[in-house]
Amino acid sequence: MIPKKSVNVDSAEELICTSRFGTFFGVPQQVFNRVWQALSRPDSGSVAYVSMEIGADPDIFHPVQDFLREQAYTKSENPALLRLLKKYLNGPRKVPNYSGGLGVLAGDTLKSFADLHMPVFAVSLLYREGYFSQLVDSRVGQIDQATQWSPEATPTLFQLEDPEQPGQPLELTVPFFNEYDHPTLAKAHVWMKMEISEEMDYFVPEFLLDYSIPSSPPWVREAGLRLYSAKSDIMKANQRRMLGSGVLPLAERLGLTIGTIHLNEQHGVAVTLHLILRQLEKKLGTDCHNCMSDQDILAAAEEAAKRIVYTIHTPVKAGHDRFARSLYTGISHATCHRILDLLANDADSPHEYNFTAFAMRVNRAVNSVSRLHRDVTRKQFPEFAQKIRAVTNGVHHLTWISSARAAVFDSTDELFGWRDDPGIFVQAEIGNDPVFLGKLQQAWAEDNRTLVNYVNRMLSEHRSRMEETWIDPPNYLSHLRQGETSQLSPGTFTIGFARRFSTYKRADLIFEDIPALADILLKNNWKVNFLFAGKAHPQDEPGKSVLKLILDNQEELYTRSKGLARLLFIPGYDMRIARMMVAGVHTWLNSPKRPLEASGTSGMKAAMNGVPNLSVMDGWWVEGYHEGQTGWKFGYEGPLTADSLSEAPETLLYAEDSRSFYALLPKVLEMFYDRPDEYLQLAVSNLKLNVPIFNTHRMAAEYVRKYNLRLDPETAARIEGFARLYKSDSCD
User: Fold this and answer.
1) Cα-based distances in Å from 251 to 19, 170, 265, 543
2) Which of 31, 343, 348, 468 could crosslink 27 through cysteines, CB 3.0-4.6 Å?
3) DSSP 3-state assignment of 451?
4) Residue 405: in which H helix or E strand, if any?
5) Whole-angstrom Cα distance, residue 362 to residue 494?
6) Is 528 strand, coil or helix?
7) Residues 632, 636, 637, CA angle at the centre, nearest 5°?
8) Any idea where the domains of the chain sit in the sequence?
9) Residue 314, φ and ψ in degrees, nearest 5
10) Minimal CA–CA distance to 198: which of 74, 17, 48, 67?
11) pTM for the full model?
12) C-alpha dist (Å) from residue 469 to 461, 464, 476
């Protein structure tokens, strides 16, 4: 049973709150006022968290909806309230403003900021066509379609109103410049998504800039339509500018103060340009571009750096924005060119600006997202090695722990308070409690049935639609006659793999030698389900080819194993499917080329449910492996060399790492099928060892040390308690 909220309201009407920017719903007025005042005080030093994508779909974490149902607040005589109730209880549950792990991490981070009552607001863009919707055809592979969604109908999302024109959208003006240094005024409407805490006693406002409005120039409208639109380099560059250039005007229009700007990746680094320009104008006057020296620019950058915290998320070259100097000459002010010439220069590519290098140079703190990633980043950016630290990623435990598992934890006295404090699991004596173990095993079986039933329904729907659409179903089992041989069975060992399809992630690694894989299963009559999901970027043709290989391997694997192995692809991967998968599988597979996976949060989500990982020693798993107590490792573990960072096909170690996997797999299957009690202890070890570490409460507490926030004593003490759970940057 979900514990009751601490919010004290006697009716749903008390969750309506107002400000000069409109009417909102989800927290009492006094909570709304307290948060807004905290963000608006001149001395607040609040944090602006800037991210190109934020994933926080309200269909998998929904404290307000839970509260309304728990209290049976479903009807009202007040028409305005009734509309809000219908929206929260029955409205669409997707906000497709994310592509994958980076965005979902941002959403999880904001939820923990809210749970911890931290003075933070977020800034991102609103994409009218989302990222893209994925169709998968067995012959063609991935097919990309624009996403259709309705921000107006989505719970937790509200369009801000103009205080001077009630009922009219708030319109933000963001100036850009062309090659003649003439200003072009971009316009954006502002949406606020409320990331409301579990207890509904706090929220973090997430402001989404909607540039796709009639009053903006056509090139701005087009760039704002779809996340990571890459029709041209200019469109890509403009989208980054639209994010970073909007931060300061937004804060000023809303009356919010900023002590620290946290760049979640370098996409919004244009805000740093504006900080430097303001510092130059403050020192030299509005005519600074005619009299500034290089030393003036560097001094201004040093001042701007005091306000910037930067998180770098990837060692992969494609993840770092580089733009031709000639391109930027045509879309920005001459003063910007001078700043970029000094601060965004790229020694390896003199004709380009490197925005990762720019973000790396201008900040007061920079962090990687795991210890191994820290070491790799120091090698990539030796000039900044001394200031690069690790803050290992986490996930929001309340979002990713399944309802069945959560019910077990709620009913276990040893775990009292786990919702507020995931560190509770450290000291809990649950490994020898037969009642707890029995309930955990039942919850795992229930989650596995839920996942298997979803897949079987999907297969059935694909069969029924086969004659009605030009899409050829993406799974071999869809083409078999309905029956036991064409379905999955609960309780069969299930391996899950779900993430972005990119060549370095090697989704097809374990199918490198299908005859060898089939022989392992045939020798012992072991049944295995392989469930895969994920998207390739629309412009990533090599990534799409890896996805197509998964589809192409299905029939051969099924046939060679005589039906023991069933490989399926689940299209349309999103947060709801992810939550179902990380709880419903029996192990989580991660097979990137080491050390190109900087973190890998999907494996953490599995660990939150006790699910062991089966992974290459990369990213977070180097810290989460615990000498085999929480899962298994395979693949190359040697020193980091120049070839280690290469994505060239001949360097991806398919033969070596797949052989390592085949050597390990029998040990995993033997334990699952022959020693289930021992397998269950791996789940308990994950709960005790990994839940307290790899959660965003702990991660947020580590960020607080970089933010220089002034917190009330109670909040500061609570956050310090989470910081003591783990020190990411420890060399121990």
Assistant:
1) 16, 13, 20, 38
2) 31
3) helix
4) helix 403-410
5) 46
6) strand
7) 80
8) 1-23+53-102+123-198+206-249, 401-692
9) -155, 145
10) 67
11) 0.96
12) 12, 10, 17
8 A C-beta contact, residue 503 and residue 549: no
Measured over the CA atoms of residue 218, residue 222, residue 223 and residue 224, the dihedral's sign is positive
Mean pLDDT of the 566-570 span: 98
Give counts: helices (H), strands (E), the chain.
25, 24
> Of 108, 189, 226, whose CA–CA distance to 699 is shortest?
108
Strand blocks (E) in 439-586: 493-498, 528-533, 565-570
- List pLDDT tens digits, range 479-500: 887 776 789 999 999 999 999 9
Residue 230's pLDDT is 76
Main-chain phi, psi angles of 462, to 5 degrees: -65, -40
Nearest-angstrom CA–CA distance, 391 and 395 = 13
Tell me which amino acid residue 582 is. V
Query: In 3-state terms, what secondary structure has residue 694?
Result: coil
For the domain made up of 401-692, give the CATH fold: Rossmann fold (3.40.50)
Rounded distance between C-alpha atoms, residue 215 and residue 212, angstroms: 9
Alpha helices in 466-611 (DSSP H): 514-524, 541-560, 575-584, 601-608
Cα separation, 220 vs 646, whole angstroms? 35
Helices (H), 563-630: 575-584, 601-608, 621-624
The pLDDT of residue 393 is above 70: yes
Distances (CA, A) of 68 to 71, 89, 114: 5, 8, 20
Q: Are 593 and 667 in contact (CB under 8 A)?
A: no
Instruction: Round the CA-based radius of gyration of the chain to a whole number and report it.
Output: 26
Structure tokens at 444: 């795992």
Per-residue pLDDT reduced to its tens digit, 261-319: 999 999 999 999 999 999 999 999 988 888 999 999 999 999 999 999 999 999 987 77
In this structure, are residues 397 and 691 in contact, taking their beta carbons and an 8 Å threshold? Answer: yes
SS3 181: coil
Mean pLDDT (whole number) for 203-221: 96
Which residue type does 524 have? N
pLDDT band at 631 (very low <50, low <70, confident <90, very high): very high
What tens digit of pLDDT does each residue of 697-706 get?
999 999 998 9
Distance between CA atoms of residues 204 and 25, nearest Å: 13
Q: What is the DSSP letter of 73?
A: -
Q: Exposed (0-12), middle (13-18) or buried (19+): which is 649, by Cβ within 10 Å?
A: exposed
Q: Residue 293 corresponds to which tokens in the numbers above?
A: 């020296």
Q: Is the pLDDT of residue 49 over 70?
A: yes
Q: Which two tokens stand for residue 479?
A: 């083409």
Averaged pLDDT of the chain: 94
Structure tokens at 590: 């991660």
Beta bridge partners of 143: 135
Dihedral sign for Cα 374, 376, 379, 384, please. negative
Instruction: Determine the distance from the C-alpha atom of residue 488 to the mean position of all C-alpha atoms in its chain, rounded to a whole number.
Output: 29
The bridge status of strand 183-196 relative to strand 16-19 is: unpaired
CA dihedral (284, 287, 288, 293) positive or negative: negative
Cα separation, 513 vs 689, whole angstroms: 34
DSSP 8-state symbol, 588: E
Helical pair 294-305 and 334-343, crossing angle rounded to 10 deg: 70
Q: Are 347 and 360 contacting, i.e. CB atoms less than 8 angstroms apart? A: no
Cα 349 to Cα 332: distance, rounded to the nearest angstrom: 20
Cα–Cα separations (whole angstroms), residue 31 to 40, 210, 291: 14, 27, 49
Angle at the Cα of 209 (from 206 to 211), degrees rounded to 5?
165
SS3 content of the chain, % helix, strand, coil (to 5): 45, 15, 35
Query: CB atoms < 10 A from the CB of 714, how many?
Result: 9
Q: Are 623 and 693 in contact (CB under 8 A)?
A: yes
Whether residue 5 is predicted with pLDDT greater than 70 in this model: the reply is no
What digits encode the pLDDT tens for the residues 321-353?
999 998 888 788 888 989 999 999 988 888 999
Mean pLDDT across 389-416: 98
